[in-house]
Design goal:
- By secondary structure, this protein is mostly helical.
- Helices cover 78% and strands 0% of the residues.
- Helix 1 packs parallel to helix 3 and helix 2 runs antiparallel to helix 3.
- The longest helix has 34 residues.
- The chain is elongated, with a radius of gyration of 21 Å.
- The chain starts with a helix and ends in a 12-residue tail after the last helix.
- The model has no long low-confidence stretch (mean pLDDT 80).
């Protein structure tokens, strides 16, 4: 049971990374989410071989695919937002308060 709860905690960590809105965290989220899908596939294969199924591991494995899809969407939004802010140029300078 502890193994499945640790997996659920990892999913919570992925959800926390999804809240960060910069490119580095988005790339980390994307990589970790797809690594998570791969590890869950391996884990499901091992459970099938042994015939021992863990409810929490199966649940996190099922939820890993939507988390990976949402991480891709989140990373895409961060990339679009940073591209839009870069195209707009720097913000205008604040007035100094001196009159001409």
């Amino acid at each position: 049971m502890a193994d499945g709860l640790l997996a659920a905690g990892y999913c919570g960590l992925l959800c926390a990374l999804a809240q960060a809105r910069n490119r580095q965290w988005a790339a980390a989220l994307l990589g970790l989410a797809f690594l998570w899908v791969l590890l869950n596939i391996v884990d499901l294969n091992a459970m099938q071989k042994f015939g021992a199924w863990c409810f929490w591991r199966v649940l996190t494995a099922v939820l890993s695919a939507p988390i990976a899809a949402l991480s891709f969407r989140c990373a895409k939004q961060v990339q679009q937002r940073s591209a839009a802010s870069g195209a707009a140029g720097p913000p205008p300078a604040a007035p100094t308060g001196q009159s001409v």
